[in-house]
Amino acid sequence: MRTDIAEPVRLKDYRVPDYLIDKVDLDVKLHPSATRVLARLRIRPNPKGRSKAPLVLDGDDLTATKIALDGQLLDLHETGAWNGSVTPDQFTLSAPPQHPFVLEIETIIDAAANTRLMGLYRSGSAYCTQCEAEGFRRITYFLDRPDVLSIYTVRLEAEMSEAPLLLSNGNKIAGGEIEGTTRHFAVWHDPFPKPSYLFALVGGDLGSIYDEFKTCSGHKVMLGIHVEHGKEPHAVYAMDALKRAMEWDEKVYGREYDLDVFNIVAVSDFNMGAMENKGLNIFNDKYVLASPATATDMDYANIEAVIAHEYFHNWTGNRITCRDWFQLCLKEGLTVFRDHAFSADMRSDAVRRIGDVRTLRAQQFAEDAGPLAHNVRPDTYLEINNFYTATIYEKGAEIIRMLNVLIGDDAFRKGMDLYFDEYDGTAATIEDFISCFAQASGRDLTEFSRWYHQSGTPLVSVTATHDAKAETFTLDFSQSCKPTPGQDKKDPFVIPVALGLVVPGQGDIELRTGNQDGASAEELSRGVIELSAAQRRVTFHNVPNRPVPSLFRGFSAPVRLEYAASEADLITLISHDSDGFNRWQAAQVYATRLLVRSAGQIRAGSAPHRDEDFSRALAIVIEKSSDPAFIAQALTLPGEADIAREIGEDVDPDAIHLARESLRETIGRDLKDALLANYQQLADSGPYSPGAVAAGGRALRNAALDLLTAGNKAEGALLAARQLETASTMTDEIAALAALTHSPGTEREAALDAFYHAHEGEPLVIDKWFALQASIPEPGTLDRVKKLMQHKAFSFNNPNRLRSLAGSFAAINPTQFNALDGSGYEFIAKIVLDLDAKNPQVAARLLSAFKSWRVLEVKRRTLAERALRRVASTAGLSADVKDIAERSLG
Ligand code: B3K
Ligand code: ZN
């Protein structure tokens, strides 16, 4: 384990590599505890690098058995003889040849002992790899950085019985049995130069499904998805999503696939969601396997999105990669932007946008508001694996979305085409990317680029004045952004404000008519005002009746909006806004306002305020909207973490929880008839479809069940019990079980037991069972979670199991994680420490659950700080955990 906290890596220190590695030939003999890797590297001095620089190759925990330079074996015990050094973490040649040369390195790897799941490891009986960000150096010594691009040829050899399937990147060029032995081999060649983080291999005995895709130029591509034997039918949906993604990228971006084969392998031990290795994506099986009886509609939607995301990386990430890890958002933000657009095209636009914004607010806004806030393009890092964050991914995607809104669809597409033309086959930077859009749109994007180097969520405050006599309507905008770690002062952001002015009964006012002050004709015709200074005023003329401003339509910028809309205005927007997102947003603002007020009242010892107008507003949504998925979103209140963020300081999670429960109860009672009518009308019928329409019906039905249960526990429990008995989909089954878990008692326990026994053989379903129990907002939950950690279905070494149980407890159970006695914090801190020795990446991720500790009321804050300090001061911590602990403490 790496315990040495190295010096921070800084963007400003970037230097081109002194050596390049043009070709990599790997000869890998798979063996459970002693895989032999022979790497043959063709190296040459980089004409752009420093001359006569030493060659320093990265390693991590490596055991080299042989190293030869241009065919001459180096005596590894006598390093003086060849003027260099070799340690598990580095290989150095102090005076390497100044002409092309070949370095051959033999390493022996114990894949079975690799619990970090980085480099070569085993998942079940399969061998697989994960190299991003710095895992290749756990396979062989290398210039393990994304700007060293090489052509790989990989020969894999294994026992036929153990690994009948042998895969690597690129196309298969040879293979067969090895005569006189029980072994076989396969040779894969990838003609596209790639960085080492995109290398992958898989060896195993897996079940496969195959299909074919004909690209727009008529090239036939063989598609394979490889899963645990017996699970093949559960991979059919992923295959369908893959083909749709391939077609979409051709149609929308003109991007064609470039190899003869595309393979996806699903494994059950994986640190994150999936990995875009060239031609050989490796997936957490959670994002591949689905059947109506085992996966929810949300799972199906996630599979579609992740399959598309990894596939889209083939162009945005692989063909054009990142110069260095500071540019991570170049591939991640852009690819999330692309997968969001894909999902929106596959499903309902407004509903997808609502889902994406919910995620952004819950994860990225929370990160931006706390001690872990960082730039979308960081300036420095200690451990790059800690930067695969919502800020890089989700905010990175929002920046590109804003760019699209600002320059329009045509210039945006032109900019993307330029980017692909100009930078194909290279390792690029954010500046390279932005320059393409500056060129395509003729705009100076320097100020816009501040989004990449200033952290924090801007706050946009708006006041509106209507002058009935003068028939004018004036909007005054101002922006600010709180200090974030290392950044006290911020320059103004360039913020696109998509807006409309809504008049009840009349709809949107035509913005172009009349003389408008302070906005250009182009802004008005597009309905997008650009806020690029600290303040801006826009006055609309010929506005006899006071309109209601609908601001940030479609969530046109990742900002917080402060606008004192009256409740009547919010109801106008809920009822009449032509923008679906803002209809939903108005309901959320209304709910948040009530919830913040009630939480304050509860904290002050009084009863929460009841508001029937809000129920009436929701009744309007139910009545007016024809899209069940949209209604379901409107009926889902802001989460407890969202309310906490809105309160911003002295946060009491118990008061927030009670306030939210009480509002759910009120809605459940007030809207009982309408909810029940929808519940009954949307009863499941016909064969299962994972499509948006059928899923929307189930979403509304289950949102109704949730509120009905909140309104009347006994009646809700009856409905839920009936649904649990008759459910034909996992969506309905888990929703019913969730409704039942609201009430303690023998019925709940019996339902949980029955669910377990019905799904015992399906680890991914048992993960839902773990997560559901970990999220019960009751004091007994911590004991329950501890007990479940002893359950035979639990495994401390499997990231999915651990995330379902401990991760859910920390992330989605705010009252118990933040229990007043500190037991939740101590529990998570202990798991982080126990896990750190085995899998630092997952341990560090779990520790980031403390990211909002500073806003808690003083008792909890003190206890959370104590737990964080205990972690930070533990000897022998990994760089990953130490970095998160120290930054959290700030
Ligand atoms: N690029 C990978 C993430 C790698 C994470 C390394 N710690 C998956 C993705 O974003 O597509
Ligand atoms: Zn990605």
Word description of this protein:
The chain is of the alpha+beta class and 890 residues long. Helices cover 41% and strands 21% of the residues. Helix 9 packs antiparallel against helix 10 (580-603), helix 17 runs antiparallel to helix 18 and helix 20 packs parallel to helix 22 (799-812). The model has no long low-confidence stretch (mean pLDDT 97). It binds (3S)-3,7-diaminoheptanoic acid (B3K) and zinc ion (ZN). The site of zinc ion has 4 residues, from helix 3.
Spell out the blueprint of helices and strands.
Layout lengths: L8 E2 L8 E11 L5 E11 L9 E4 L5 E6 L2 E2 L10 E4 L2 E4 L7 E9 L9 E5 L2 E5 L19 E10 L5 E4 L2 E7 L5 E12 L6 E4 L2 E8 L5 E8 L8 H18 L7 E7 L6 E2 L4 E5 L12 H16 L8 E2 L5 H19 L2 H20 L11 E2 L8 H34 L3 E2 L1 H12 L8 H4 L5 E9 L4 E9 L14 E9 L3 E2 L12 H6 L1 E4 L3 E6 L7 E4 L8 E4 L3 H10 L3 H24 L8 H13 L3 H8 L4 H8 L5 H18 L1 H10 L10 H20 L1 H14 L3 H11 L5 H14 L3 H12 L6 H8 L10 H14 L1 H4 L5 H14 L3 H8 L10 H15 L6 H11 L1
Parallel strand pairs: 2-12, 18-19, 19-21, 22-24, 25-32
Antiparallel strand pairs: 1-23, 2-3, 3-9, 4-8, 5-6, 5-9, 7-8, 10-11, 11-16, 12-15, 13-16, 14-15, 17-18, 20-21, 25-26, 26-30, 27-28, 27-29, 27-31
Helix pairs in contact: 1-2, 2-3, 3-4, 3-5, 4-5, 4-10, 5-6, 9-10, 10-14, 12-16, 13-14, 14-16, 15-16, 16-17, 16-18, 17-18, 19-20, 20-22, 24-25, 24-26, 25-27, 26-27
(3S)-3,7-diaminoheptanoic acid (B3K) binds next to strand 20 and helix 2.
